[in-house]
Design a protein that fits this description.
Distance between the termini of chain A: 44 Å
InterPro entries (chains A, B): 5peptide_repeat (IPR001646), RuBisCO (IPR033966), RuBisCo_large_chain_AS (IPR020878), RuBisCO_lsu_C (IPR000685), RuBisCO_lsu_C_sf (IPR036376), RuBisCO_lsu_fd_N (IPR017443), RuBisCO_lsu_N_sf (IPR036422)
Keywords (chains A, B): Magnesium, Metal-binding
CATH topology of the largest domain in chain A: TIM Barrel
Cofactor (chains A, B): Mg(2+)
GO biological process, one term (chains A, B): carbon fixation
Organism (chains A, B): Kribbella capetownensis
Shape of chain A: globular
Radius of gyration of chain A: 24 Å
Oligomer: homodimer
CATH superfamily of the largest domain in chain A: Ribulose bisphosphate carboxylase, large subunit, C-terminal domain
Helix content of chain A: 25-40%
Number of domains of chain A: 3
Strand order of the largest sheet of chain A: 5-6-7-8-9-11-12-13
Number of helices of chain A: 19
Largest sheet of chain A: 8 strands, parallel, barrel
Largest interface: A-B, 105 and 106 residues
C-alpha cells in the first residue's frame, strides 16, 4: 500500500489472539472473502489490503482507560510501529462505560480460550474509496460490527488525510462566525430550548421568544421533536419568531440567534432552509443522525446559515460499551460534513454519560481537525446556573454554547429570570467570584440556586 | 390524543417499575422536560403527550422470545388495552442474542431494586411530527437511547399510519419488477458479488462478468467496499460491464442485472445513478445506512432503476442485544424509503446472526407493509449450493435473491461452475430432489458440495 491512508482505531474484544482478530477486520474491510478466490493476486493484496499498524493489548475491557484517548489526532510516530505511546494508556480515570462490556452475541469462543481486549489500529489506503464520507464508512464502519471473531468492536477514532479537507468545506461559520452574528465576541454563549418541546402554538411561541430575547439570551432553538407539524408549521414559527427578534433588535441592538429545526426529508429540508434564510433567520438546526451525515454534507452545500447539529439518536451507537462508534470518531465526520455547532451534552446531564465522557466529547470538538474545522460545542441537558463554576473549571474555555431548557423555563420567576440567573452565574464564574457572593446581589440567581441546586451540589463530578 | 398514531414497540430493561420507565420514555419523546415548565398545560399534554398503550413484563431479558415478534404489523386489538396477545409470547426458540444483555452504562439502580424487563408499546400522535421519516425517528428513536432510567432499550417494531404511504412511494420495482427486468418469472434469483472486493481492474471485471453472465447468473453486484475509487472509476466499470452484458444478451436473450454501487455523497450519487441509467444499466446499489434513510428516500425520488439496498453498518445498531433498533423496525423504514432489494443475511452466514434471526428478517421483509411495499429479500454471506434445501424448507418461498460470493468464485472449476452448481442446487430443491441425487448427474454441483459442504452439513440450523 502506498499513498495517503486513513487510520482507524478500534477497541477490540475477542477470544482469538488479537493479531488474528485484527487481521480478520482488515481482511473483511478490504480485499478479503471467506475463501481464496481467483484474481486475488499477491500484487492486488499488496496494493489494496488494509494493514494492521498497531495492537496494544489490555488485560480486559475494564482496564481500558477510555478517557486517555481524548480525541486528539494520532501522532504519526504512533503509527510507525506496533507500540502505542505509553502516554495514551497512563493514569486516566476509569469511565463507567468501560466496565460493562459483555460479550456481543455470536462471538466465536474456542474451548478454553481466554478473552483478549485491546486497541487495534488499521490503515486503509485512501485509494480504496477516495475522500468520500459514505464510502469511507463502508470501510471503517461497515460489516465489521457483525464479525463473529469479535466479542466487542468499537470504532474509537479516525485519522484522515488532507484529501478530505479538499472535498469537504466543513463549518461555514464555526465559533468565530457565530460570535460575529450574535455580536458577542467573548464569554460563554447562553441559550435555551423552546419548552414545552411540542405543542406550543405559534402565538405563544411569539411571547416566549420576546421574553427570552428581552432578557438578553444569545440563542434559542426548537426542540428536536419539533419539525414541521400541522399544529405549528415551520412557516408560522419563522414568521412570529423573526418578527419578534426584529423588534427586540431594533430596541436593544442585539438579535439572538434562533435555530429553526429544518430536519425533514432532504428536499423539504432544503426548502425549509430557504424559508428561514429568506425571512432573515440566522441559524438552522438539523438532527444529523436522522438526515444522515451525507444529508448534512448535502445541506452544507446549499446552506447560507450556521448549522446547529443536534445529536439525537447518537446513543444508539455509543451507549453499548462493547459496540459502536465513539463520539470522538463520529464528531470528526460531523465536522467535516459541516456542523457549525455540535451537541456534546453538559456536565451533570440527565442522560447516561459521565462528566468525564462529556468532557472528552467537548475536548474532541475543540481539537483542530485537519488544521481547522472550527465547531462550537453545545452543552445541554439538565444545565442550570449552579453548574457554571465546575463547567468552566473543567473545560477552561468560554467557547461554549450552554443550553438550559428546564434550567431557564423552570425558574420560579419565569424564563426571563432564568436567563438573568444563567448570565449572572457565568459572568460571576469567569470573573473569579463565587456564585454565593454574586447571588447576594442577584435575586434571580439566588432563586435559581435554591430551585436547581447550589454550586457544587450536583456539579462536582456528576454521577461519577 | 386523537387522530392517526404511530405505535412503537420497545424491549425495555430497568431497575424502576416498568410503568415508570415507560412513562419516562413517553415523556422524553413528546412533551416532557426534567422540571415542570410554564405553558405545559393539561390540554397541551392531553393532545401531544405520547401514551403508553401496553406493558408486558418478562422475568428477564433472557426470557424474551425475540422470534415471536416476527415483524408483523400489530393487530389493532393489541393496542386497545394493556395486554399483549398471548400468542405473541408463546413458544418461540430463544435466540442467542436475547441472552447476553448486560446493563447499559449509567443506568439508575436504586438500592435493592430488581431488574425488570418487558415489552412496552407507546403511541405517538402523528400530528407531533407528520409523516416524515427523519422527524418520526426523532420521536421513536431519538434521545431515548440515552435515558438513565433504562438499563436496556431496543426499538423492536413500528406500526405506521397510512399517511406514510401517501408520502413515500416505496419500492419502484420490488419483486415483480425485478423479475420482469430479468425475464425470470419464477424460481429463486441467483446472484454474486464481484470478488476480490476491491482492486480488480476494469478489464478483468469485464472477463469475470462475461463468464458469470454466460453461465446464466441472474444478478451481479459490486462489493459494498467498491465505490468510485481512482483505480476503478464507476464510469469505467459501467462501460465494460454494460458492453459485456449487451453482448451476452444478444447471444443468449438473457441479460443479467448488475447492481453498480453508486454510494457516495448525495449529489455525486445522483450523478452516478444517471451515468448507470444512461448507459443502459438496470440496477443501482446503495449502502443505505451510509447515505442515511433520508438519502435513500431522496435517491428514490430521482431514480429510474431498482435500488439494491445494502445493509453495511446495520450491526452497529443491531448487535448489542440490550440496545438499538431491531432489523424488523429498521426494514420497514428502508422499504418506505424505497428499497427494492434489501439484504437480510442468509442461513449459516459468516456473521453473528443465528439462522432464527435471519429467518425473522426475511419474514419481516416479505410481510406486506401498509398494504404493499414489495421488497425482495437478499440472502448473502457464506451462501453455497448446500444451503439450498434448508433455506427453501425454512423460508417456503422462491421470492429470494440468493447471493453467493466465495460460494461461486471459490468453486474449484471457477465462477461459471459455481453458477451452474448454485442453479442446479436450487432447481433440484424446488423440484423435490435431493442434492445428492442431482449431484450424480451434475459434476459442478458435486464438486461444490465437496468443497463447501454437503446438504445439511452446515445448513441444519447454523451455529445455533
Amino acid at each position: 500500500m502506498s499513498g495517503a491512508e486513513v487510520v482507524a482505531t478500534y477497541r477490540v474484544d475477542s477470544y482469538l489472539p488479537l493479531e488474528q482478530a485484527a487481521e480478520v477486520i482488515a481482511g473483511e474491510q478490504s480485499t478479503g472473502t471467506f475463501v481464496a478466490v481467483a484474481r486475488e493476486t499477491p500484487e492486488l493484496r499488496d496494493r489494496f489490503a488494509a494493514r494492521v499498524v498497531a495492537i496494544e493489548p489490555t488485560t480486559s475491557t475494564a482496564d481500558l482507560p477510555d478517557a486517555a484517548l481524548a480525541g486528539a489526532d494520532l501522532p504519526d510516530a504512533a503509527l510507525a510501529g506496533a507500540d502505542l505511546p505509553e502516554a495514551a494508556l497512563a493514569g486516566a480515570d476509569l469511565p463507567e462505560a468501560a466496565v460493562a462490556g459483555a460479550d456481543l452475541p455470536g462471538a466465536i469462543r474456542p474451548a478454553g480460550a481466554r478473552r483478549r481486549s485491546g486497541l487495534v489500529r488499521i490503515a486503509f489506503g485512501l485509494d480504496n474509496f477516495g475522500p468520500s464520507l459514505p464510502n469511507l464508512l463502508a470501510a471503517v464502519a461497515g460489516n465489521l460490527f457483525e464479525l463473529r471473531q469479535l466479542a466487542g468492536i468499537r470504532l474509537l477514532d479516525l485519522s484522515l488525510p488532507d484529501a478530505f479537507a479538499e472535498r469537504y468545506p466543513g463549518p461555514q461559520y464555526g465559533i468565530t462566525g457565530t460570535r460575529r452574528l450574535l455580536d458577542r465576541p467573548d464569554g460563554v454563549l447562553l441559550g435555551t430550548i423552546v419548552k414545552p418541546s411540542i405543542g406550543l402554538p405559534p402565538e405563544e411561541l411569539r411571547i416566549l421568544v420576546r421574553e427570552l430575547a428581552e432578557a438578553g439570551i444569545d440563542f434559542i432553538k426548537d426542540d428536536e421533536l419539533m419539525g414541521n407539524p400541522p399544529h405549528s408549521p415551520l412557516a408560522d414559527r419563522v414568521r412570529v419568531v423573526t418578527e419578534e427578534l426584529d423588534k427586540v433588535a431594533a430596541r436593544t441592538g442585539r438579535r439572538p440567534m434562533y435555530a429553526f429545526n429544518i430536519t425533514d426529508d432532504l428536499d423539504r429540508m432544503a426548502a425549509n432552509h430557504d424559508l428561514v434564510h429568506a425571512a432573515g433567520g440566522t441559524c438552522v438546526m438539523a438532527c444529523i443522525n436522522l438526515i444522515g451525515l451525507a444529508g448534512l454534507a448535502w445541506l452544507r452545500e446549499r446552506c447560507a446559515l450556521p448549522i446547529h447539529a443536534h445529536r439525537a439518536m447518537t446513543g444508539v451507537f455509543t451507549r453499548a460499551p462493547q459496540l459502536g462508534i465513539d463520539f470522538v470518531a463520529w464528531s470528526k465526520l460531523a465536522r467535516l460534513a459541516g456542523a457549525d455547532h455540535l451537541h456534546t451534552n453538559g456536565l451533570s446531564n440527565k442522560f447516561y454519560e459521565t462528566d468525564d465522557e462529556v468532557l472528552r466529547s467537548i475536548a474532541a470538538v475543540r481539537e483542530p481537525l485537519l488544521g481547522g474545522y472550527e465547531t462550537l460545542p453545545v452543552l445541554s441537558s439538565g444545565q442550570t446556573p449552579g453548574l457554571a463554576p465546575e463547567t468552566y473549571r473543567r473545560t477552561a474555555t468560554t467557547d461554549l454554547l450552554v443550553l438550559a431548557g428546564g434550567g431557564i423555563h423552570g425558574h420560579p420567576d419565569g424564563p426571563a429570570a432564568g436567563v438573568t440567573a444563567m448570565r449572572a452565574a457565568w459572568q460571576s464564574t469567569t470573573s473569579g467570584r463565587t456564585l454565593t457572593e454574586t447571588a447576594q446581589q442577584n435575586p434571580a440567581l439566588q432563586q435559581a440556586l435554591e430551585t436547581f441546586g447550589p454550586p457544587g451540589a450536583d456539579g462536582g463530578g456528576g454521577r461519577g
